[in-house]
Design a protein that fits this description.
binds iron/sulfur cluster, mainly alpha, 2 helices, about 100 residues, 2 domains, about 55% helix
């Protein structure tokens, strides 16, 4: 989740700079429309798609892994708090050795 926010902020910074440099090339009324278009299609829409992909992948981890039933698992961040690593469907940081029931 943090990665999505981080990448979105990077994209936002880059495109705001690009818009800043392009503002003299467009008439003011078109510039507003172009700005809204760029902000939606290059910043918000990719962030939404990444968030959707993250929730889809998270769903599988939350329901189908050993970590989902472990007390060291933080569901909101999909994180093993003991190892400070993100488990996946194919990767369990402790390999099951430190699993403890919730
Ligand atoms: S301790 Fe092991 S089983 Fe528990 S959340 Fe971490 S990696 Fe998963």
């Amino acid at each position: 989740m943090g990665e999505i926010i981080y990448k979105t902020l990077i994209r936002l910074g880059i495109f705001l700079l690009v818009l800043w440099f392009l503002k003299n090339y467009f008439d003011e009324k078109y510039f507003l429309i172009i700005s809204l278009f760029v902000i939606y299609f290059f910043i918000f829409h990719p962030a939404y798609l990444n968030y959707k992909k993250f929730t889809e992948e998270s769903k599988n981890i939350l329901t189908g892994t050993l970590c989902s039933s472990c007390k060291h698992f933080d569901e909101s961040a999909i994180l093993c708090t003991k190892y400070d690593k993100h488990p996946t469907e194919n990767y369990i940081p402790c390999e099951g050795n430190d699993w403890e029931p919730k």
